[in-house]
Specification:
The chain is globular and about 95 Å long. Helices cover 31% and strands 21% of the residues. It is an alpha/beta fold and 485 residues long. The chain binds dihydropyrimidine-2,4(1H,3H)-dione and zinc ion (ZN) (3 copies). It is an enzyme of class 3 (hydrolase).
Length: 485
Amino acid sequence: MTILIRGGTVINHDHSRRADVLIEDGTIVAVAEGLSAPAGAQVIDAGGCDILPGGIDPHTHMELMFMGTVSADDFEWGTKAALCGGTTMIVDFCIPAPGESMLKAYQDWRHKSEKAACDYSFHMAVTSWTKETHDDMEAVAKTYGINTFKHFMAYKGALMVNDDELFNSFSRCAALGALPMVHAENGDVVFRLQETLMGKGATGPENHAYSRPPEVEGEATNRAIMIADMAGSPLYVVHTSCREAHEAIARARAAGKRVYGEPLIQHLVLDEDEYRNPDWDYAAARVMSPPFRPRKHQDSLWAGLQSGSLQVVATDHCSFTREQKRLGLNDFRMIPNGTGGVEDRLLVLWTKGVNTGRLTKEEFVAVTSANIARILNIYPRKGAVAVGSDADLVIWDPARTKTISAKAQTSRIDYNVFEGIACTGAPRITLSGGRIAWQDGELRAEKGDGQFIARPPFPASHVANSTWKEFSAPRPVSRSMPVVP
Ligand code: DUC
Ligand code: ZN
Ligand code: ZN
Ligand code: ZN
């Protein structure tokens, strides 16, 4: 199948130019001005539009068994929602249940994801440290095509790992050429604050935020950075939500450490006041970890994206219906943590970022696609409008308007945390694997159209991180010993 996209402006992370794009059998084969259409090609007029590499969401949880229920968007509907919003690839997390092997988790996720309508890849969670974990990580990195390992520093008694486990696992990542990731919140302190609040009869959803203040995230982020440095590994901090965490990352980068930070679109535009809404369902719908923050933190996150101290924007898409959220009606600790966003990320970021002048179009492409592909080792197959890249593209109309509304969404949940945000700038067409997946409100991609994208380990130079190296190769000291009578 051959498609020629004519008359648009190609936006890459490093440059933009007027160019036509020729696609053959799922791959971009030419990017140049004035291309002529081969016989039989479908021609798409992209006049007035930008041509962007498809969005990559590096952080989703489709059909995740979590907090006593299962997240409502499965791989079929979560990826269809993604395509409607211009995202052509997601990266989800394989999370082994307690005592379960990584191999089993991988097989379960491969099975669940057969329904995916767009391309997808996985991270693997390390939820305990045993000899089996140590051994399995090699197969995960080298055979399964998963070069990223996620660690939860929160969810005490469930997924949380301690510093010993972090150090072991980060060291193993360094040896394998893998990138460790952290959910950085101090789970012990969160647990204590939750107990204290509940003890005072504070059961409402706003207490979710009060039990997870920015300090618990700042402390854990800083700790993970220091542990990664001592283990000689780089580090990727998921859902960086506050100034304290951003500052720890910026400080580390200024000291030469390879540390990456991932704000979510939710934290960039929604604030803690959402939890004080008198409607319980409204507030509970917004419960996620880390929680939405007081407004001043948003300025810090935007500044990080602008300056490059934060590199990517994700969603942590983990959707639960109103009914599911009611599991925590009498106890905020039982409200399933998670919000949606995979369908809305690009539109909201364009409106609040590009249209306000905070981000250039090229920076938008960097943080929604190219930087993610580079950090996850799939660039330039993904993340670029370039010859040889997969034809995952968005024909983006910067003048198209859309007001976000749950009524019109593809996601299976019955609300939207961005409800009512009026966006200017939206997809006209999403192409996935060289086919039109979505056009002008009509979803064409089907269940199962997506493919698993393996991500090999990184070259050794990527993990040569450490200021600790000078300590890890001890130099012998010649010393005269005191004579003890
Ligand atoms: N945070 C959420 O809000 N949901 C899923 C997991 C997480 O860390
Ligand atoms: Zn199967
Ligand atoms: Zn998390
Ligand atoms: Zn997550």
